[in-house]
Write a structure and sequence with these properties.
By secondary structure, the chain is α/β, with parallel strands linked by helices. The protein has six helices and eight strands; from the N terminus they run βββαβαβαβαβαβα.
């Protein structure tokens, strides 16, 4: 495949042109347009909120139906340090994840919460100060809302029934809970549904991580569309090989 820059016009706010191709692993390329302001811009008038997808961003993606057993859970190299850098830079961080395996009967909410608490959050703690994120910072859409369990629930409810991404429920709840407006929020995911949820929620920008098969398929799709999400053409979209690369550019 030809280099990314031959397909779309790009604005290189954070990396020199010689590093196109993601050779260094700490890069972020904006497709079509770049946001007007981001955490990297100084002086920053206040903290930002980073919303992170789970599989393919924080932990390795294993394909459908997702990571549903603790034995499958493996953190992506550098992800814990990236979260530590977000929090250490004074920004807020929350996790927004689809877990339709619960509605499908492949796992219970208690199983998923236990995995988040004892594996995901524990391993994130290894990258920096323990306790920087808690279970209340993990927002889960379990598929029950699509089955008539209700359109949503209070943002502080661990058992809330939010619609799956690309609906904006998870993102909206996380923004409400943190008190951060959409214009100071960034979504980082590895799927088109993450980008669509970002657009629906009206956040400042979205970053596509391409370390998973989902991410690479989404990147290919965006290239064919000129770097623009047709449903939300004004959404600034960046591409990075990893969460670590994106955070290194942004914080």
């Amino acid at each position: 495949m030809l280099p990314l820059y031959l397909y779309v016009g790009m604005l290189t706010l954070f990396v020199p042109a010689a590093r196109f191709g993601f050779d260094g692993g700490q890069q972020l390329i904006w497709l079509s347009k770049a946001p007007k302001s981001l955490p990297v811009c100084r002086p920053s008038p206040g903290p930002w909120l980073f919303l992170l997808d789970r599989d393919g961003v924080l932990n390795e993606d294993v394909g459908a139906p997702g990571v549903i057993r603790r034995q499958q859970f493996q953190m992506i190299k550098g992800a814990a340090a990236a979260v530590d850098k977000i929090v250490g830079s004074g920004h807020a961080c929350k996790i927004v994840t689809n877990q339709s395996c619960i509605q499908k009967g492949l796992a219970t909410r208690e199983m998923i919460d236990k995995m988040h608490e004892e594996d995901l959050l524990s391993l994130l703690g290894d990258g920096g100060p323990r306790g920087c994120l808690g279970l209340a910072d993990v927002y889960v859409a379990d598929g029950r809302a699509e089955q008539g369990a209700g359109p949503g629930s209070p943002p502080d409810s661990l058992q809330g029934s939010y619609r799956l991404k690309p609906a904006p429920d998870l993102l909206a709840a996380a923004m409400r809970a943190s008190g951060t407006p959409a214009e100071r929020t960034i979504m980082v995911g590895d799927n088109l549904t993450d980008l669509e949820a970002a657009g629906a929620a009206g956040v400042a920008a979205a970053v596509l991580v391409t370390s998973s098969a989902h991410g690479r398929r989404a990147e290919k799709f965006l290239l064919a569309q000129g770097g623009v999400l047709s449903s939300f053409p004004d959404l600034p979209i960046g591409v990075s090989p990893s969460l670590c690369g994106a955070v290194s550019a942004l914080c």
